[in-house]
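A common beginner's mistake is to predict each chain separately and then try to dock the pieces by hand. The better habit, illustrated here, is to supply every component at once so that their relative placement is modeled jointly.
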Amino acid sequence: MSDKKIQMIPKIRSGIVIDHIPAGDGVHILEILERDPALKNVPITFGMNYQSNKLGAKDMLKIKKDDLCERTIQHISLVSPGVTIKRIRNFEVVEKVSVQPPKEIVNLLRCLNPGCITQNEPGLKTRFILTDPRNNLVTCVYCEREFSIHELSPII
Amino acid sequence: MKRDLISMHDLKAEDIQVYLDTAARVETISLKDRFQLLQGKIMASLFFEASTRTRLSFEAAMYRLGGNVIGFAEQTATSVSKGESFSDTIHTVESYSDVIVIRHPKEGTSRHAAQISYLPVINAGDGTNQHPTQTLLDLYTIIKNFKKIEGLRIAFVGDLKYSRTVHSLLQALIKFRVNEFMLVSPESLRLPEYLKRVKTDFPVTFVETKNLEDAIPYADIIYMTRIQRERFPDQIEYEKVKDAFCLNAGMLKNAPEQLKVLHPLPRVNEIAPDVDETPHAEYFRQAKNGLIMRQAILLNVFEVKI
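With all components supplied together, the output reads:
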């Protein structure tokens, strides 16, 4: 990280850094973090449009909390596949994972089809299969409609 | 493992072939012998949406095989109308029967039922999604007429947006390597894009037109569909397109000899009664094949070899 970036987003002693977020996706990840009750009152720093060798421009998030729940990580993987989640201890990266969406997405997204049984039967969990990872397309297991992940609203 | 029949997505061409072969064998067995095959079995026939052919032919198929039927023909006659959840209805019915046949206006209902029930579930139509038993009888009708499926030219006509029979049959035909379709529909009822995005190792071509007469010299099979008033969220839109296509005997005067006209029925105005008298009309035999195919489906579900 350059000196300039350190000035803009200070290093954290301990917590989570979400890095390599394609510029523009950071806002969507922030929306997910805001909906996670475990992150209420947790300090979060958000930086936009940093220079990146890999992406050209990237966003970044720093969270002053030791871990993220599995569900939040899964949501992040859907909104912005390929981002890096780093765990920081004593200013050092102790763990680093690149998140990818699961093959079967259970109860994370709401089906857009008003005629789908998941919209009409209380308590029924939604299920989508990632049918085209390159184009972020998923198919509802129930109504068999295909959607782009980005057009489906998350179930938090 | 129980055998459900939910969607053509779940079946490979060889699985479909098993149903087609079983149907052909059913026709060779006498009514007396057929009556022994499912003695003591009970089929729950749960029709949350109106049906004539599918419900009656399923029930007749079960009786022909010596089984019995319980069920209902409309939702208002059930506890669902009192607010009971669908899941509770299924759990109740499964303790009274050996197989569940469901028609429901919401897409994915049969899949949901199959997941929560220990009984085999047969999808008799779920909203605008799938109608696999209709597809199997359509394929059986095609095989009986043409002795093959691959290489045939099929034109789908009418409501290609909401028609589950079109959606199911199209997917099945592609499994048999049919690679060219003509789609005849008004602009507002075109086949949804997601159904055109097929994942095959061969190219599939869709020729779209608004002119029914284009299909007549082109096709081996014209698959007519009704414009379904009940599927339209806006009735004004229905009024605009309800009589978009009407096939009559005059239009078929110069049709190729082998051309067959299929229709899942019921028809309204899309096929004039004078077509019934032509050698191209196949839809009533198609409906009759439904009784045979549904016997084959029940035998496969119960794993009865014939």
